[in-house]
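Tokens for chain A. Residues wanted.
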């Protein structure tokens, strides 16, 4: 299988809100966390409901309540692990804001972190 990612992914948890319409047209809103953040997509953890593969969703990163970022994305893959359900999202609209306010913030946040002290075993 060919790797289709177009840049580094940063393993970071940002709070998110995902909106989509279910099969009956009813709006679903689910809150969760990012698992990793890339320049054109993200893997998200949604604790209760997952949108279907191929669905269009509105993804809002709520890390900074005064400057939330909302993008349109497509669901490209699901991980239906009952303990940790995840959806892989590919961005479709809003990539410029995403790269500047989410992906670059993830990189800067990780760069500022101090490494964990090694435990003596």
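Reply:
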């Amino acid at each position: 299988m060919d790797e289709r990612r177009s840049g580094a992914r940063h393993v970071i948890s940002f709070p998110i809100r995902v909106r989509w319409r279910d099969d009956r047209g009813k709006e679903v809103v689910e809150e969760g966390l990012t698992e990793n953040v890339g320049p054109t997509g993200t893997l998200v953890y949604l604790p209760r409901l997952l949108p279907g593969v191929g669905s269009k969703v509105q993804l809002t990163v709520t890390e900074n309540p005064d400057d939330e970022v909302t993008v349109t994305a497509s669901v490209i893959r699901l991980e239906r692990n009952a303990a940790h359900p995840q959806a892989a999202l590919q961005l479709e609209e809003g990539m410029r804001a995403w790269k500047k306010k989410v992906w670059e913030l993830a990189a800067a946040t990780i760069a500022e972190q101090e490494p964990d002290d090694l435990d003596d075993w």
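The chain has one domain: 10-109. The beta strands are 10-11, 15-21, 27-37, 41-45, 56-61, 69-79, 86-93.
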